[in-house]
TrEMBL record:
This is Putative ABC transporter ATP-binding protein YhcH. It comes from Sporosarcina luteola. The gene is yhcH. Residues 5-233 form the ABC transporter domain. Gene3D superfamilies: P-loop containing nucleotide triphosphate hydrolases. One of its GO terms (molecular function) is ATP hydrolysis activity. The lineage of its organism: Bacteria, Bacillati, Bacillota, Bacilli, Bacillales.
């Protein structure tokens, strides 16, 4: 599959500080890629370079084969952007807002306006004033606006910030449908890891300006078990002696073990007279993995943002 967007050794140095260090990343049609990283990792800087709000000091962004370095305007004409809380005219209807934004692009027809309204499920309320819309509806109108000129690449920065759970779910469902039906490649930055886990096909993780991981969400995760038994010291000793990787978790341990190993582990616990309270499979969440990848610590700050 040909990528819609390619970052090629994209770099940004400010003063003597390397903020973005040779990022290479390809984004594909119909796929939703999450962009994650601790505070200060370089997400905003990367996105600003991808949408032309900041100039790179090295490398390039290629959008549908067009280099932003050589052909800035043409490249950017293929991008749709949604920021947190898109600006709309509150005293005008949703429809009039779309007509207004449609004039900024060449060749957006009335049919296209109607089509994007359907794509975000706004048919019933589109002729009411934006001031009467919920945040979720304003966000969907922002999505409709970003799609007017049929971009092949959509960038969303913290798109679900402030939405309630129902609003988040709706937004996610519409976005998924749009990615699939229009073949749009979507790039989403968010601090909400549980949200990214549900919304994205792939994640790219950045730290200190470098890409540290890129993976498919469907990639099978390793198998973990939560084991709660006492005395803890003895439990740990037995698990380590089995050659298992052990992490302290809640009131017990998390071990990276295969299912076939579990009966043997339980037998050894019983033989040693340990009290066993729980042995259960544990699925690591994206949050667990993210904290492991980035060394943890910063996520609480991210959530507080
Ligand atoms: N104009 C600037 N001058 C100097 N340093 C800057 C400038 N802009 C950003 N930085 C630094 O670049 C690094 C990356 O910042 P950036 O805002 O891209 O991170 P981020 O991943 O978006 O963080 P957050 O999650 O907090 O929004 C930070 O260390 C920041 O302090």
């Amino acid at each position: 599959m040909k990528p819609v967007v390619e970052l090629k050794n994209l770099s940004k140095t400010i003063g003597s500080k390397k903020i973005i260090d040779s990022l290479n990343l390809s984004l594909y049609p119909g796929q939703i890629t999450g962009f994650l990283g601790p505070n200060g990792a370089g997400k905003t800087t990367t996105i600003r370079m991808m949408v032309g709000l900041m100039k790179q000091t090295g490398g390039d962004v290629i959008i549908e084969g067009i280099s932003l370095r050589d052909n800035f305007e043409e490249g950017l004409s293929k991008v749709g952007v949604i920021v947190e809380n898109p600006e709309m005219y509150k005293f005008m209807s949703g429809y009039k807002n779309l007509v207004h934004f449609a004039r900024m692009h060449k060749g957006v027809t009335k049919e296209r306006i109607d089509e994007v309204i359907r794509q975000v499920g706004m048919q019933n309320r589109i002729h009411e004033k934006v001031g009467t819309y919920s945040l979720g509806m304003r966000q969907r109108l922002g999505l409709a606006q970003a799609l007017l000129h049929r971009p092949k690449f959509l960038i969303l920065d913290e798109p679900t910030n402030g939405l309630d759970p129902a609003g988040i779910r709706e937004f996610r469902q519409y976005l998924r449908q749009i990615a699939e039906t229009e073949g749009v490649s979507v790039f989403v930055s968010s601090h909400m890891l549980s949200e990214i886990e549900l919304m994205c096909d792939r994640i790219a993780v950045i730290q200190n300006g470098k890409l540290i991981d890129i993976r498919e969400m469907s990639e099978t995760k390793e198998s973990y078990y939560y084991i709660e038994a006492t005395p803890l010291e003895k439990v740990k000793e037995l698990l380590v002696n089995e050659g298992l990787a052990v992490e302290v978790f809640k009131n017990g341990f998390l071990v990276n073990a295969e299912q076939q190993q579990i009966p043997g582990i339980i037998r050894s616990f019983i033989a040693e007279g340990l009290e066993v309270f729980a042995v259960q499979p544990h699925k690591k969440t994206l949050e667990d993995e993210f904290l492991e990848m980035t060394g943890g610590g910063q996520i609480a700050e991210s959530y507080a943002k």
